């Protein structure tokens, strides 16, 4: 039966259009079960009825659509009960409904299974037979299993707008994606494709390795110059830290491992194009298999760089892109370089079929103030080219060819968004202080090199979280102490005079190093963070020594330990930090009081168990930092990168809020400073709740700094007590958000929920 099921599912997936897929399915199900009829009904929730979509066995005596009203018939009963109905003689059932223009009198037995996708009934799959009998358990299990498979097919068709009824306007079928940059944009879709695609390269061999290596090196040199030109063109257009995105590209080209691997593959007998394809695709796979969203998005950079080198290997002429004025950039995968090489004044919005809010394209879009929606996998590029699009970067919605009244409504929202953005910038030089005098420190989360003027421009207290994983991920060997020292020195110097919190290596398990493979069944609960580095003191000590050497004469280094679960882990980590400190002081013959200062040590609170161990850890460290992203995942047992359960991930969950309140209360009682470096701090509603709990130190990505500062300056901390009480008493994240939205609107800050709010 399993093989039959697989065959039917495969046939449905290969059907060229949705209607044919349904018709193929009902025919094959009828044959597989040896029944006399198989029918699919689709739910029309707006009209509150089920529409007969495909049948093999029912005799239809009308050209008009056949409908079953909600609440009537066996079909509606199966849907409302959300379970299969196995009826030996359907005509005798109290819920039986005789449909007009449908001949089914001869059928007795009926098995109806609801088609449900993410708790929403999409339709009903029914099989019927002339003989009055109950279907067997195997037959029932087969139909229920097939209905679950059909749910995915229908959901995708619905997202693509293939289920519209005659009374529905096209704009009602919103294409959903991930909101990546806030704002609203309306313009013509301008579809861009990469200059070349490694995926299209056919593997070929070569017996002239010297020639191929020369060609590869020349292509790399031309790519390097091309990226320099693109970067130069962006100066003055985006924030300085955004330009550091291009440092990642240059670092990849400077990496000995990338060029070495390609040239080694060429020496193994492959053409340069093939070698580049093999090496880049292997590296892309390594990144894409990671669970850390920020690190995983580097796969896009690697693929983009590989495609650009390939274009020069193929000696393609530099492309000239001429987008229409005020257009929406649309691509299979928008990259930072793609966005940067287009005329900045013409691109007012962005839609990408792949990617997330951590991609460099999303970071650049936010820096440029371009509304963006990513992860829109239910759209065909050739279908939207030249069409009018509305991009709603708040909710992740994309509308194709909307009617005039909808377009006018969104144009008004876009105007309000622009006015709000200009207003927010006016407070950049002012302190983050509430109307009743509560001062908040705003810090940055960073993972890239930055320009020296960045700190002064953004008016922040310092760096609340510096990720150190990138240099480790970009190599096929551990970076040396000297290499790490050089990188850390740049960051500490750029933020001289301000605290820089550097998180120790947070890899392992869900994001393994390419040269330290590990295979775990449950990586989120496995060998990661401090667990891995304590098991490898040679890695941990080298990193700490590099940080300490980089801090000589600066005294702004803070060290943060990730994934801490117990006091014993802190004891061991602190012992090694002290060991490294004395080693470096002795080697450099530094005066402890003048040049090499012993750094403050902090612990990340992201494992729920640590909340109840804070009193055991407090006397061993100087500060705490709450990572709300992982804390939420562990509190709710949800992998937010798993599409099946991602909707359950929500930092506004009342349980998460109660945990955060306990943390600040315990830290206050222990007299230990605590900051929040997760995404919740950069959310307008999240900042309000954290402020109400008593948190006074937030760390966030640069694009949220100005917005959060403005919000803080326009609310009273005392007025938030009631909001917090209601949030903590709520039963769901949605209820919490309603209270927060109301608080923002009452404070005249509804526009931060979305323009026009």
UniProtKB/TrEMBL annotation:
Q: Which GO terms describe its cellular component?
A: cytoplasm
Location of the protein in the cell: Cytoplasm
- Which stretches are transmembrane? none
Recorded catalytic reaction(s): these are: L-histidyl-[protein] + phosphoenolpyruvate = N(pros)-phospho-L-histidyl-[protein] + pyruvate
Names of the cofactor(s): Mg(2+)
Q: Sorted alphabetically, which Pfam families does this protein's record hold?
A: GAF, PEP-utilisers_N, PEP-utilizers, PEP-utilizers_C
Task: Please give the family membership noted in the entry.
Answer: Belongs to the PEP-utilizing enzyme family.
Which top EC class applies here?
transferase
GO biological process annotation, one example: phosphoenolpyruvate-dependent sugar phosphotransferase system
Q: What's the EC number here?
A: 2.7.3.9
Signal peptide positions on this chain: none
Residue span, GAF domain = 17-164
From the broadest rank down, the organism's phylogenetic lineage runs: Bacteria, Pseudomonadati, Pseudomonadota, Gammaproteobacteria, Alteromonadales
The name of this protein is phosphoenolpyruvate--protein phosphotransferase
